[in-house]
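WARN retry 2 of 3 for item q-0093 after timeout on previous attempt; input resubmitted unchanged.
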Amino acid sequence: MSSESVSKESVQTVPSTSSTSSSPNEVSADGRPLLTFAAPRRAKPARHLADLSMAERRDAVAELGEKAFRADQLSRHYFDRLTHDAAAMTDLPTASRDRLAEALLPSLLTPVREIVCDGGTTRKTLWRLFDGALVESVLMRYPERVTICVSSQAGCGMNCPFCATGQAGLTRNMSTAEIVEQVVAGARALAAGEVPGGPGRVSNIVFMGMGEPMANYKAVIGAVRRMTDPSPHGLGISARGVTVSTVGLVPAIGKLAAEGLPVTLALSLHAPDDELRDTLVPVNTRWKVDEVLDAAWDYARITGRRVSIEYALIKDVNDQEWRADLLGRLVKNRLAHVNLIPLNPTPGSKWTASRPEDERAFVRRLEAHGVPVTVRDTRGREIDGACGQLAAAAPEE
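OK item q-0093 returned
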C-alpha cells in the first residue's frame, strides 16, 4: 500500500532488491514494523486507453495514422458500451479495428477464480495481472445499489498484523487502467444480466481491496477520474459514490483534499489511542492519531464530505468500552461517522471478531456521545471475504 506526496525523509522504507514482493513482518532495529512506501520495480503493463486522458488518447490514435475522433469512438465503446470485442465496433473502419484495439485495449486482467455467495449477488474474483501478480475485487449487489470493491496494489506495504494483504507484503503498484478494468469487468457482468436481479449498473466504488490507495496516489487519482468523468471520457459514475480509504498517509490526505473530487474519505483508524494503534496500524509510528484525525477533519472542511472512520472490532484487543468512549470523544461534533467492521478472520490468525455483546456495547457507548455509527454488512465471510485470502490461497504458476 509509493505515494508522490510522501517524502522519503518522513518515512522509513524497505528498499527493493529484486522483482519479488517486499517481505512482511520485518522490523527495524528498535523493533518497529517496517513500512514499504516505494513499490518494488517491475515491468509495467501495456498502455491502455484508461491510462490516458482524452487528449492523450487522441494523440495516441493520431500516432497510429487514424483521425483523432476515433479516440472518442473507441472510448465510447469501452466506457459506455463496455465493448471488448473489436469485431463489435462496427462504426470503426474494418481495417482500423484490430489495430486500435491492439494498441489501446490490451487485456489487463485474467480471471483465475470466482466464487459467489448471497444467492449470487456477492461475487469475488481473483485476477492475474500480466506479470503473474494476483489481485482481488468484489461485486456486491444490494436492492438499492451495486458496489464494487477494487484493489489498487498487488499486496500491501503497510504491515498491519490482522490483515491478510498486509501480511503478504507489497508486490507492486497497479496501473490506472488495471484499477479501472476491475470496475469495467463488473459493469459488463451486470449489463449482461450475469448477476441475479437483471441487468444493472455500478453505482458505488470503494477502494478497500488489496493495497493502500494513498501509496499509489497518481494511479488511484487517475482511476477515480476515469470512473467519474462522463462518457466518452469515463464511466460517468458519481464522485459521491466513490470512497477512497487510507490507513493515514497524512500528506496524501491533504493532497486529495485539493483535487476537487468530492469522494468520501475512509480513514482506517482501528484504535483511538497511539499505544495500540502503533501495533495494529504501524503507519501510526509516523503519523499519530491526533495528526491523522486533524488531516481527516481538514478534508471534511475543505470538501464538505463526511469522513468515514473505519474501525475493525477485534476480540479483546480494541473492543473495550473505554476505547469506545475515547473514540466517541475524538469524533463527536465532527463531520464524520464511525463504521464498525466485524473482523473477517484469516486462516491461522490469532485475531478474530468481537463477541456480539461487546460489539453492541461498543455501539451504545458511541451513540451515547452522539456519534453516528453503523456496523458493516458482513458479506463474503463464507467466500474468504477478507482482502488477500484468495490470493494467499492461489497456487503459484
